[in-house]
Amino acid sequence: MRNIWVIARREYKLYFATPAAYLVAFMLLLILGVIFYANIINAQLQQVAPGVEVVLGPMVTLLLFATPAITMHLIAEEQRMGTIELLLTAPVRDYELVIGKWLGGFLFLLTILAVTWVYPIILNLIVDPGIDQGPLVSGYFGVVLICSALVAIGVAVSTLFSNQIAAFFATLGVFLLLWLIGLPSQALGAFGGDLVGYLDFSEHFFSTFYRGVIDLSDIVYYLSITGLGLFLGSLFVETRRWR
Amino acid sequence: MIQVEGLTKDYGPRRAIDNLHFHAEKGEILGFLGPNGAGKTTTMRILTGYMPPTSGSARIAGFDVVADSLEVRKRVGYMPETVPLYPDMTVFEYLKYMADLRHLPEADDRVDDALEVVHMDDRSESFIASLSKGMRQRVGLAQALLHEPEVLILDEPTIGLDPAQIREVRNLITTIGEERTVLLSTHILSEAQQVCDRVLIINKGRIVAEDTPERLQSRLTGAKRIALRVRGDGEGLETMLQKVPGVMRVVKVGDGGVEFETAPGQDTRPEVARTVISGGYDLLEMRSVGLSLEEIFLELTRDEPAPPEMADKEAMILEEAVNSEDIEE
Fold first, then answer.
1. Alpha-carbon distance A181 to nearest alpha carbon in chain B (angstroms)
2. What pLDDT is attached to residue B264?
3. Residues B108, B110, B113, B119: is their CA dihedral positive or negative?
4. Ranges of CATH 3.40.50.300 domains, chain B
């Protein structure tokens, strides 16, 4: 356990020393801010009170692109620099390494999420009776679970590469696949339609957390993806030794 | 302290090391000598728990490198050949990180101690990216020494250093080796000769010789090399000498000089002398020339026999070429 924390702490600190991480955080917050502004203007024109979904909707989509940029280097860079040899010959278990990397990336993403709290706060000030607190809490809870799952996938993919850019695109590919896998569920019907519907990444968020509902099956879904990502990541590190 | 039995490792169809047997005791500096690609790094990676062997076993301080990998890794200090470091950390941060991963109590003090041993205590706040090759090498060594390991495994510890730094690192290894077991690899013979208590010569994944540097030299001089000086035209002499039983690899050295080797355990000198005289030459000098470890090494690791002089030059050029490639990696 202690090793996990040592590794996570280094990774977390490293983000604050690398311009790329600032850039990702800056872009995420900037685009989110622009969309937020546009949504507010739009709501004003249509004479409706904007809810927290004007922040949550775009944020989840943006995370699909921001997370690979945050996770791409985690293990790929160690493999490129050869420092993986230090970690794999130190008394650290393979899963401790993978979980430590995941935790570092996850905590950094949570830090960015904490900054996005300014938008609901602004929203609460400009909407007259204040915004509905239910979707705010459930929505952010859902986003935290999504981040956990996305970072876990990102770490697992990162173990397969020694080139960050390759890791970025491969991670993004996996995300988009999970994001869109539910689309043909209607067409498939009885032939596995329910299955692909269940696997859909967005479905577990937009039909529940987004609307202020917390459903245990969604929590289980995101935690399972997290667990699977970490398990596969550890497996990939282990098999790397045998190559 | 180190016990290796039947160690074999295949990379796909290629066999990197083949049935290695060796051991090292406490307080011994064991040298791993061989050309690049001989299997030195592979062996070290198996011993440090980085990768498992295909077959065979290795034990360090009584722990199996596969079954008790973590126990082995706790007891081993390892400096990989490429000396991987994190360029975006300071020397202190890096060593502190490695110390924390090993759960060392009073990690800060340990880091300071290790830096003092490698004479880097004044650069602890420098970023690793700003350090010279020699300094990085020393930081790598400090990392391997942090937890005062029972076994120190150093892969090409002096590669890419300038002569003064090489001397310093060698002295350091000698000091460390008084109390700990050190396994170091090198492709420089003089280094093995100076630093090691015992040398393993490895080529194409097999151990071809194992002994102290001195004994290795004397053992191989069983195959004696003899130099002749004659007066007269030396043209036909080479072919005549080749016909003498037990004489091998005859080479002409300058005007009137010939060098040849004799098969181990055979004294060819009387027969050679008779041949020279009956061939109409005056025999001026006959003396045996000891094979240096460098020649032994070339001898042992050479594939097909070639004239010794040419082989020397070839090997030197080859070695240089391979070295520069290594550094780039």
1. 37
2. 65
3. negative
4. 2-83+141-217
Phi and psi at A59, nearest 5°, equal -65, -45
Binning pLDDT at 50, 70 and 90, where does residue B327 land? very low
For chains A and B, CB pairs below 8 A equal: 55
HSE (side-chain half, CA atoms, 13 Å) at B167:
2
Report how far residue A157's alpha carbon sits from residue A165's, in angstroms, rounded to the nearest whole number. 12
CA-closest candidate to residue B280, choices B247, B233, B238: B233
- Residue B190 to residue A189: CA distance in whole angstroms: 76
Q: Is B112 exposed, middle or buried (0-12, 13-18, 19+ CB in 10 A)?
A: middle
Query: What's the CA gap between B179 and B150, in Å, rounded?
Result: 8
Average pLDDT over every residue of B45-57 = 92
CB-count burial class (<10 Å; 0-12, 13-18, 19+) for A199: middle
Q: How far is CA B31 from the centre of its chain?
A: 5
Partner-chain residue, chosen from B45, B51, B101, that has the shortest CB–CB distance to A90: B101
| Partners of residue B151 on adjacent β-strands | B76, B181
Residue B110 Cα distances to B1, B105, B153, angstroms: 24, 8, 19
Largest Cα–Cα distance of chain B, in whole Å?
81
Q: Give residues 62 to 81 of A whose Cβ lies within 8 Å of B.
A: 81
Cβ within 8 Å, pair B49-A85? no
Domain B2-83+141-217: homologous superfamily in CATH: P-loop containing nucleotide triphosphate hydrolases (3.40.50.300)
Interface test with B, best of A83, A89, A162, A237 (most B CBs within 10 A): A89
pLDDT tens profile B173-189: 888 888 889 999 987 77
Q: What angle (nearest 5°) sits at the alpha carbon of residue A136, between those of residues A133 and A142?
A: 140
Q: To the nearest whole angstrom, how far is the Cα of A153 from the nearest Cα of chain B?
A: 24
Domain ranges across chain A: 2-242
Gap between the Cα atoms of A128 and A117, Å rounded? 19
3-state secondary structure (DSSP) of residue B234 = coil
Q: Which residue has the tokens 């300038």?
A: B162
Looking at chain B, the domain(s) classified CATH 3.30.70.100 span 222-289
Query: Residue B293: its pLDDT value, please?
Result: 53
Architecture of the domain spanning B222-289: 2-Layer Sandwich (3.30)
Q: Is B219 exposed, middle or buried (0-12, 13-18, 19+ CB in 10 A)?
A: middle
DSSP symbol at B186: E
Long-range CB pairs of B263-266 (<8 Å, 24+ gap) are B263/B223, B264/B222, B264/B223, B265/B222
Tell me which residue of B138, B209, B190 sits closest to B199, measured CA to CA: B209
Which pLDDT value is given to residue B230? 82
Q: Which of A18, A81, A90 sits opposite B73 (nearest CB)?
A: A90
pTM score, whole prediction: 0.80
Token match 């500096």: residue? B29
